[in-house]
Design goal:
Residues 134-423 form the NADH:quinone oxidoreductase/Mrp antiporter transmembrane domain. The structure is a single chain. By secondary structure, this protein is mainly alpha-helical. Among the domains are: 337-523, no CATH class; 746-800. It is built from 34 helices and two strands. Strands 1-2 form a two-stranded antiparallel ribbon. A hairpin with a 4-residue loop joins β1 and β2. α18 runs antiparallel to α20 (411-436).
């Protein structure tokens, strides 16, 4: 279906509306401080409603592409693609984002930088919306990097704390580095398939699998995905990101940044999936991440850390299922994706409410607060119910669909099912601990006297918890609307909706085993935690410590390189510059075998032209054999005057006069500035330095001569000449083509050059006026010179 121009603009507005709202968020906070969250939440709510309006079309199998020109010469459009997958992600981001914005107003009530926080969270939301809706891979990458930048701002929001700054930098380095690799992979896909549009790529499934560039593309895209979605061994940035305020944690872990990598793998499954590399690497990485994250969650007592590690485990589950690649696995991944977003977003907000009202989020320091926080307890119980995969919840159907892959009786699928069973049981124990331990049991005194959180902090967890159950009750309708279309988009073939209460013995038996194992682990949670902590004391090194060591080594390496390269010796700097120049001139000619032949005969020069060459040669000899620096400086200007004379003789008087002025000014300024360097002295060099510098000069001179000969032996391209000739008068209204080029066609460039010359002139004037009065007098001279230059510029503007 081809959308109208108005619909294309509307979809663009969906992506940029959160950014526009971010600009006014601080003002909204200033004028309506008590209700700013509710007001700002209208934007993501409106985006949710707009995307939801396409649900019937998408359910019928339609796919919509919205495109606006961006860089047409490079085939880059600001294009968006709406199918089952992007619709589900768009609804999760905007829907949960609505509750997060409202929640932030209550959680950070009274914070002096709440307006700034609103701006950051809305920009983060816009970045994720643009990412999941993008069709052009360059558009996708731009929004991909924006998620890294905005998450850096959010994680480091409390920038006065060193832990927050470290976590923000760590997240930026890991995800940003993966993003650079992803860019290379996306560009390589674009060149290999001849298109930058994902919608077009999806029409050729299997093309990349047979392409010679498949392996590097797969590796590059995989690194981009696993760094973003915190797969082992790049998982450590995710729990450290808990230094961010709880609204950030809830949003980042439930529906946004950490699922960007999962979205990328799901989106490119038809393009890169179905190969041995895909079906082996992804399940192994995902399975290891699932078990590692679930075990690390049980080791924690900080409830946010427990949820962070279970998020890491859930991301491993999703990667493992996408890697499996079967219809059942893909449908299970979509179910688990939505179920996880509902219960994990709710549980994070519940933990934030507990922390906000009791002053602690340590699970060992809070108990028996159900009476004081009944609605919070209700949200926690329903969310944990779905997290455990108990019947009629959405988590139950997600878990059943995962175990359904074991019906094939293939050992690979059975292995995935067993790994999923263990991971689900461990996550069930962690979720049960958060839902039961703080609310039930004997009352423990807490730092703050608890009471129910404000409405803004209750709406999100309560509604998300109810949705987790409602989606299970109406599972078939939700399957038609969301799960079947999204799975079809990932699988690239129609995935029928068979969701419902089916008492299949294999999935049901595995579910019962999950509940039994999860209940046992929860019962012995203290023992399990003690064992895991003993192991941690023995195995002290990990990727988190490795990151610190890497950054320390990087800084030391940069310091070493700086001391070698930036040594402060101008002579060596110039040698390096001319060596690089020689390499740049000779290497292409040698490698391509395009060394120009020397001319057979010398050009027929007139008497005056031989005279100019003689002047240049005499000036060169004067520079080389000059006894003092002053003689060398003055003689250097002779070369420029010779060039100016050549311009005059060849019919370019404007260039000749310009060259005369430039050379005169250069010699005068150089002589004035170098008065401090004793111009009457001679530079004494040892013989080795003379040979080195003279040889380098000859090599560069010969190379540039050869380069000019190569240029002169090519056909003259007069395209620009003809263009300027045709357009100079009718468009720029000038007959002097050189002036027209400088003033009209290169106006910005000319303005920049004038600005540079003016700045350099001010600095030179200040240096000339410095006397022996010391630094203060020199600074004063600079200030006076700048003031005079500014005053002169104002007078010139007034006169004009």
């Amino acid at each position: 279906m081809i959308p109208t121009q108005a619909q294309s603009f509307s979809m663009l507005l969906v992506a940029i509306a959160p950014f526009l709202t971010a600009f006014v968020a601080p003002l909204v906070k200033r004028f309506v401080p008590q209700h700013a969250g509710w007001v700002l939440a209208l934007i993501p709510a409106s985006i949710f409603a707009y995307i939801f309006s396409f649900i019937d079309l998408i359910a019928q199998g339609e796919k919509l592409r919205f495109a606006l020109p961006w860089i047409p010469m490079l085939g880059i459009e600001l294009s968006f693609y709406l199918d089952g997958l992007s619709l589900v992600f768009g609804l999760l981001i905007s829907g949960i984002g609505t509750f997060i914005v409202i929640y932030s107003g209550g959680y950070l009530s009274g914070h002096q930088h709440l307006g700034r926080f609103y701006a950051f969270i809305l920009m983060f939301m816009g970045s994720m919306l643009g990412l999941v809706l993008a069709d052009n891979v360059i558009t996708l990458f731009v929004f991909w990097e924006l998620t890294s930048i905005t998450s850096f701002l959010l994680i480091g929001f409390d920038h006065s704390r060193q832990a927050s700054r470290r976590a923000a930098i760590q997240a930026l380095v890991i995800t940003g580095g993966g993003g650079l690799l992803l860019l290379a992979g996306l560009v390589l896909i674009g060149f290999s398939m001849g298109t930058l549009d994902i919608s077009t790529m999806l029409q050729y499934p299997g093309f990349m699998a047979e392409h010679s560039a498949y392996l590097p593309v797969f590796i590059l895209v995989l690194f981009g995905a696993i760094t973003k979605s915190a797969q082992v061994p790049f998982h450590f940035w995710l729990p450290n990101a808990m230094e961010a305020p709880t609204p950030v944690s809830a949003f980042l872990h439930s529906a946004t940044m950490v699922k960007a990598g999962v979205y990328l793998l799901a989106r490119f499954n038809p393009i890169l999936g179905g190969t041995i590399e895909w079906q082996v690497t992804l399940p192994i990485l995902g399975g290891i991440t699932l078990i590692t994250g679930a075990l690390l969650a049980l080791r924690q007592t900080d409830m946010k850390q427990m949820l962070a590690y279970t998020t890491m485990a859930s991301l491993g589950m999703l990667v493992m299922l996408i890697g499996a690649g079967s219809k059942e696995a893909i449908l299970a991944a979509m179910l688990f994706l939505v179920a996880h977003s509902f219960y994990k977003g709710g549980l994070f907000m519940v933990v934030g409410a507990i922390d906000h009202e009791t002053g602690t989020r340590d699970i060992t320091e809070v108990s028996g607060i159900a009476k004081e926080l009944p609605i919070t307890f209700f949200g926690a119980a329903l969310a944990a119910f779905s997290m455990a995969g108990l019947p009629i919840s959405l988590g139950f159907f997600a878990k059943e669909e995962i175990y359904l892959i074991a019906k094939t009786f293939e050992w690979q699928h059975w292995l995935i099912a067993i790994v999923a069973l263990v991971g689900n049981a461990l996550m069930m124990a962690a979720g049960a601990a958060i839902a039961i331990k703080p609310f039930l049991g004997p009352r423990i005194a807490t730092p703050k006297s608890p009471h129910e959180a404000p409405l803004s902090m209750l709406a999100g967890p309560a509604i998300l918890a109810v949705l987790g159950i409602a989606a299970g009750v109406f599972i078939y309708q939700f399957g038609d609307w969301f799960f079947s279309p999204s799975a079809s988009a990932v699988y690239n073939h129609k995935v029928s909706n068979h969701l419902g209460l089916h008492f299949d013995p294999i999935p049901l038996g595995l579910s019962i085993a999950t509940w039994a194992l999860g209940g046992l682990i929860h019962w012995k949670l203290e023992t399990v935690r003690d064992i895991l902590r003993r192991i941690a004391r023995v195995w002290t090194w990990g990727p988190d410590q490795g990151f610190d060591q890497f950054m320390f080594g990087l800084v030391r390496f940069a310091d070493w390189i700086t001391r070698i390269i930036q040594h402060g010796r101008l002579e060596l700097y110039l040698i390096l510059v001319f060596v690089a120049l020689a390499g740049a001139v000779y290497a292409p000619m040698v490698l391509t075998g395009s060394i120009p032949p020397m001319p057979d005969v010398l050009p027929q020069l007139r008497f005056q032209e031989w005279g100019v060459l003689l002047i240049a040669a005499l000036g060169l000899l004067a520079v080389v054999f000059g006894r003092t620096r002053l003689v060398a400086i003055v003689s250097l200007g002779v070369q420029g005057f010779a060039v100016a004379l050549i311009f005059l003789l060849l019919g370019a008087p404007d260039l000749g006069f310009t060259q005369f002025m430039v050379e005169t000014l250069s010699v005068v300024i150089l002589a004035l500035v170098m008065t401090k360097l004793h111009l009457d002295q001679r530079d004494n060099r040892v013989f080795e330095e003379v040979i080195r510098d003279g040889g380098l000069a000859l090599v560069c001179g010969i190379g540039l001569t050869m380069l000019l000969l190569a240029v002169l032996q090519t056909d003259l391209d007069t395209t620009l000449t003809e263009f300027f000739t045709k357009t100079s008068v009718p468009i720029a209204h000038g007959r002097n083509i050189v002036n027209v080029i400088l003033v009209d066609y290169r106006a910005i460039d000319t303005l920049g050059e004038i600005s540079v010359v003016m700045t350099a002139g001010i600095a030179i004037l200040a240096l000339i006026r410095i006397r022996a009065g010391g630094p203060k007098r020199g600074i004063g001279a600079i200030k006076k010179a700048v003031k005079r230059a500014t005053s002169s510029a104002r007078k010139t503007r007034s006169a004009s």
